[in-house]
Amino acid sequence: MPADFVALNQTALYQIISSNFSDLNKAKTIEQIKKYILPKLKIFRGKNEKKTIYFLEESEYVETEWKDMVSMHYVNTSYELKNTVIRCHVFSKKQFDSKHYLGFFTLRPIDEIKVMVSFVYPNWNNICTSIIHAN
Q1: Residue 5, φ and ψ in degrees, nearest 5
Q2: Which element (helix H / strand E) includes 119?
Q3: Is residue 2 pLDDT above 50, yes or no?
Q4: Span 6-51, pLDDT tens digits
Q5: Which residues in 23-52 are b (16+ Cβ under 10 Å) and which e?
Q6: DSSP per-residue letters across 53-85
Q7: Among 78, 77, 130, residue whose Cα is nearest residue 99
Q8: Distances (CA, A) of 7 to 16, 21, 64, 96
Q9: Which residue among 62, 111, 130, 135 has the highest number of C-beta atoms inside a 10 angstrom radius?
Q10: How many angstroms separate the CA atoms of 83 and 61, rounded?
Q11: Whole-model pTM over 0.85
């Protein structure tokens, strides 16, 4: 897992996505990230949409459900599709510790942005605590 925390925003998500696909239209991809991905990640910010949160990228995570879908659907095709996903661990601060860990989400390595988010796993203890302290 990389040691560099990155602010969770459309630019950072574009960097991750574009590293998996070579022929993306940047403006269109960023618009799709704003429309389809960021709304699914609102849980990590709570009510404060302007709050900066950070993530660490784990680029080769084996997600059983995705691996099963790939093997079942693409077993008889010539597509070359990875059976791993990108797991992003979310933190409230640039500190790698459990009290700032907000959970994680996974991105499928597919070129359709609207279905790229695979799972969102919030750490309810820390999310609820951060909401209480914000009020």
Answers
A1: -80, 140
A2: strand 117-122
A3: no
A4: 999 999 999 998 887 778 899 999 999 999 999 999 999 877 777 8
A5: ebeeeebbebbeeebbeebebbbbeeeeee
A6: -EEEEEEEE--HHHHHHHHHHHTTS-----S-E
A7: 130
A8: 12, 21, 28, 14
A9: 130
A10: 9
A11: no
Identify the bridge partners of residue 103 per DSSP, sorted by sequence position.
Answer: 90, 122
DSSP helix/strand/coil, 1: coil
How many angstroms separate the CA atoms of 128 and 25, rounded? Answer: 37
Task: Report the run of H or E that residue 90 belongs to, with start and end.
Answer: strand 85-91
For residue 118 the two structure tokens come to 């695979």
pLDDT value of position 118: 84
3-state secondary structure of 105: strand
- Contacts of 22 by beta carbon, 8 Å cutoff, 6+ apart: none
Q: Who contacts 12 (Cβ-Cβ below 8 Å, separation ≥6)?
A: 6, 55
pLDDT at 29: 92
